[in-house]
Amino acid sequence: MTESGRLSFLPLGDQAADPDVFLGELLDGWARAQQAAQFSPNTVSGKRARVLDLVEFSGHYPWEWTISDADDYFSHARGVRNLAYATIRSYQGAISMFCEFASDAAYDWNTECARLFGGVFSQVITEWNRITHSQPTEAKSAKRAFSQTELQQFFDLADLEAERIVNAGRRGALAAMRDAAAFKCLYGWGLRVDEARHIQVVDFSRNYSAPYFGDYGVLRIRWGKPHRGSAKKTRSVLTVWDWPAEALRIWIGHGLPLYGTPVTDVFPTTGGKVVDEPQLLKRLHALIDELGFPPGLDIHSFRRTYGTHLITGLGFDVSFVQLQFGHEHASTTTIYTLPAPDYQRLALKNAHDATLEAAQHLLNGRRP
């Protein structure tokens, strides 16, 4: 086995091929590929367990799997084991990812499997048996913000998606890059989805009080939520963090020109229109499903997370966030004063750090 995950040889001698040995080599190769893509060890071992679980349940090796095997497995998981829909979605994401890897022409697994066992891998998770977010859940959880860890994992996977599409020889890598940039924009400036969809290149400008953001210090919003019967509201949103500005600079400078003739929209389609909300939702749900996050996240969660992080995480004044959001009333903005998911942990850490610092001052014979 090579470090890239390719099968270099299978030491069989004169004996018949051992399917268990081959499956072990395949799973090890898949683990290496996931580790190279920066998946955590827990995520890698969890996905491996899902493959072995389906093998045991169906009594078939992966190159023998049929769609019926997957249907029976997930029907049993829901009807007998009573697993949550979110859990089953994450299981389906793991099986789908495994099938995609095993059948990828960039590796040798399909060729060797055909030679040794007379079978090949195929995708057993389809649009027909995949659980979508339109399915009911046991309890209708309230919409929520991302935790800091979830947000980082989501953006990492969104960035990886384009690379995976290229490696698989499929179309759509540019659209994946565009969607990843759109998600970062939604969070980076706390936008509604319609506001982000209609951003044009000329809407970014310098903030001379914050020159370190370059040409991305201010974002002019021209598709703000209107009052009933009125025109779209406009506002200016100040850039708070440097990384969203850098992400948009890279996208506009290197990704957007790949659409061909100069375009004015930041998030266009090949047909010359702006990306639509269903496309962003489809990408969002696919990534969340693969990561196996608990329910409650939607495309508005980026805006919720932005407001919550600014107010309860970083201590920004509610009035500042009200202006950033374009809220008419401060009472609307105060819904984001609920503690962020990481707030208690960070607050406890800060308290411990302060206690230790004070103790160190006393040991050194001076007042804190």
Secondary-structure map with pairings?
Layout: H1 19-36, H2 41-58, H3 67-79, H4 85-102, H5 109-117, H6 148-167, H7 173-188, H8 193-197, E1 204-205, E2 218-224, E3 233-238, H9 242-255, H10 277-291, H11 301-313, H12 318-325, H13 330-333, H14 343-363
Helix pairs in contact: 1-2, 2-4, 4-10, 6-7, 7-9, 7-11
Written overview of the protein:
By secondary structure, the chain is mainly alpha-helical. It has 2 domains: 19-117, Orthogonal Bundle (DNA polymerase, domain 1); 148-336, Intergrase catalytic core (hpI Integrase, Chain A). 52% of the residues lie in helices and 4% in strands. It has 14 helices and 3 strands. The chain has helices at residues 19-36, 41-58, 67-79, 85-102, 109-117, 148-167, 173-188, 193-197, 242-255, 277-291, 301-313, 318-325, 330-333, 343-363, and strands at residues 204-205, 218-224, 233-238. Strands 1-2-3 form a 3-stranded antiparallel beta sheet. Helix 1 runs antiparallel to helix 2, helix 7 (173-188) runs antiparallel to helix 9 and helix 7 (173-188) packs parallel to helix 11. The protein is globular and about 75 Å long. It comes from Subtercola frigoramans. Keywords: DNA recombination, DNA-binding. Residues 141-349 form the Tyr recombinase domain. Belongs to the 'phage' integrase family. Residues 21-103 form the Core-binding (CB) domain.
